[in-house]
Amino acid sequence: MDIEQWFYSLPLRVRSFFRPRQVDQELSEELHEHLSRQIAENLGRGMAADQARHEAMRNLGAIPQIEQQCREVRGPSLLEDFMQDLHYGFRHMRRSPGF
After folding, report:
1. How far apart, in Å, are the Cα atoms of 74 and each of 36, 39, 51, 58, 88?
2. What is the end-to-end Cα distance of the chain in Å, rounded?
3. What is the pLDDT of residue 37?
């Protein structure tokens, strides 16, 4: 990843750390918008409604799988990893009070 891509993705990574549900919701809405646009385009070509939806879903792919791929590409941030490590460390220290 070059420096320009890193700077571009930094705000998204920070937002996805503090508001992961909102980022996932926006992603879901965007994918559904793409699906509805594809359906409208297929209807404009003269397809039946069921056929237009089926064709659009076939072209776009499975939405849950696309959402998961986007989450994987976003990946865990260094801040998320650090917070998980802190949580793990505190949990272990709490379990062994003699430490």
Report:
1. 25, 28, 34, 25, 23
2. 41
3. 93
Q: Is 35 helix (H, G, I), strand (E, B) or coil?
A: helix
Residue with tokens 């993705």: 9
Query: How far apart are the C-alpha atoms of 80 and 17, rounded to whole Å?
Result: 7
Which has the closest alpha carbon to 19: 82, 90, 80? 80
Provide the pLDDT for residue 98. Answer: 72
State whether residue 46 is helix, strand or coil: coil
Q: CB 54: neighbour CB atoms within 10 A? A: 14
Q: What is the pLDDT of residues 16-62, one digit of tens each?
A: 777 778 888 888 899 999 999 999 999 999 989 999 999 988 888 88
